[in-house]
């Protein structure tokens, strides 16, 4: 197949490298900055540098941009996309973009399928992209009414480049779970390192500090957009977290050792039951 990847940052670049390393597909790279596209070509991550007007040759198009940028791109260049093509995205939220991209797909005649690769790093850009980034990761698909054979084709591509688990879900279920598994930890990490104690952690920290603070190395522009687009599920999860923390605070303030032990044991039992 001919696969076009739009946006050659860490995710787009990793898609390109993974497809080139693990399949025989032809990869077309399109990027706003010409220098990055040239770098991808020189690295062998893509077979050619493309242009939006030439998308008619692509069998699969992967949009690796900020959520709103995906919509804007398809709105502007959808007329050039083949009616036989599959268009997917890599955005971390789905309710805010799936309906709009599905509407554009119906307008221009191609097939849209939402997807989300559950992989990444704390750093950004093509330079940190990795052909093995997706090895063993989960690939989430929101079909949005797409035919089964098209969904199967996208899932097969994901499997071929290293994804281990394929999850099929709705945009609503996706966003609720991502609020808990991804967005909430980023909020927690950023809040944690804002403590005035953080600059003095050297010599006093080990695994616990690293585990909690790791994802505070954040792309603030991207994650601000993700948080705001998914604000209702994220606020619900934050309210639950605040309630749980408040319960622990109150037990400490009142020196209620029995209650404190009970709360900590509840968390221990949850993790133990999950086998993690």
Walk me through the structure:
Helix 6 (171-193) packs across helix 9 (231-253) and helix 9 packs across helix 10. Strands 3-2-1-4-5-6-7-8 form an eight-stranded mixed beta sheet, sandwiched between helices. The protein has helices spanning 10-22, 34-42, 67-77, 98-108, 148-160, 171-193, 207-213, 220-229, 231-253, 257-274; strands at residues 2-6, 26-30, 48-49, 60-63, 86-89, 111-118, 138-142, 165-168. The model has no long low-confidence stretch (mean pLDDT 96). The protein folds into two domains: 2-169, NAD(P)-binding Rossmann-like Domain (Rossmann fold); 174-274, 6-phosphogluconate dehydrogenase C-terminal like domain (6-phosphogluconate dehydrogenase C-terminal fold). The chain is α/β, with parallel strands linked by helices. The chain is elongated. It starts with a strand and ends with a helix.
SSE series: EHEHEEHEHEEHEHHHHH
Helix proportion = 40-55%
Rg, alpha carbons: 21 Å
Biggest sheet details: 8 strands, mixed
CATH topology of the largest domain: Rossmann fold
Strand content: 5-15%
Give the count of structural domains. Answer: 2
End-to-end span in angstroms?
39 Å
Q: Low-confidence spans: pLDDT under 50, at least 5 residues?
A: none
User: Which structural class do you get from the secondary structure elements?
Assistant: alpha/beta
Level-1 CATH class name of the largest domain = Alpha Beta
Give the averaged pLDDT, no decimals.
Answer: 96
CATH architecture of the largest domain: 3-Layer(aba) Sandwich
Question: Strands across the major sheet, in which order?
Answer: 3-2-1-4-5-6-7-8
Instruction: Tell me how many strands there are.
Output: 8
**CATH superfamily membership of the largest domain, which one?**
NAD(P)-binding Rossmann-like Domain
Overall body shape: elongated
- What's the helix count? 10
